[in-house]
Design goal:
Length: about 160
């Protein structure tokens, strides 16, 4: 899917005029905030900073490629997840993700070969999704939680990656 080194962009999930330039070397990731590039062929997904209980982390989901600037990223050819400084491929192999909701926070966990690799906990009151669904347009609800969106994307494009 990804070679040993590549440079891509992801749009900020909440600020659509902002993007992140991401450099992937093997599975190590570095990123910086930039304006959205004019050539959309290199924009392969969405990402944002998440305020966790331990501090801010960068989370993004990306596709391996995009056919053209007018086409959507090719998530059906593979879905990958970036969490902080690491790339995880959600291709149905050993990498799995899990999202657990509590009354006041959510826990997003990535595991490989059955053992947890990384877990982030962030504030997300239970009522937040319910209020958005209640006052949003019916049948046109999009969660503002990127971890929830990653789980939904993985259910569609990497079925065996969700626990």
């Amino acid at each position: 899917m990804f070679g040993t080194e590549m440079n891509i962009y992801v749009c900020d999930l909440y600020q659509r005029e902002t993007a992140y330039a991401i450099r992937v070397v093997k599975k190590e990731v570095s990123y910086r905030q930039v304006s959205v590039p004019e050539d959309r062929c290199f924009v392969l997904g969405f990402g944002t900073s998440v305020k966790t209980l331990e501090g801010e982390v960068f989370v993004a989901y990306i596709a391996p490629k995009r056919e053209s600037a007018s086409a959507a990223p090719a998530y059906h050819e593979g879905l990958s997840l970036i969490l902080n400084d690491r790339l995880y491929k959600l291709d149905g192999g050993d990498t799995r993700i899990k999202l657990v909701s509590g009354l006041s926070h959510r826990v997003f966990t990535i595991s490989e070969s059955g053992s947890a690799v990384v877990s982030i906990s962030y504030r997300w009151p239970l009522y937040r999704e319910g209020m958005a669904r209640l006052f949003g347009e019916p049948f046109n609800f999009e969660s503002a939680d990127i971890c929830f969106q990653i789980v939904q994307m993985a259910r569609i494009y990497a079925r065996s990656a969700v626990s």
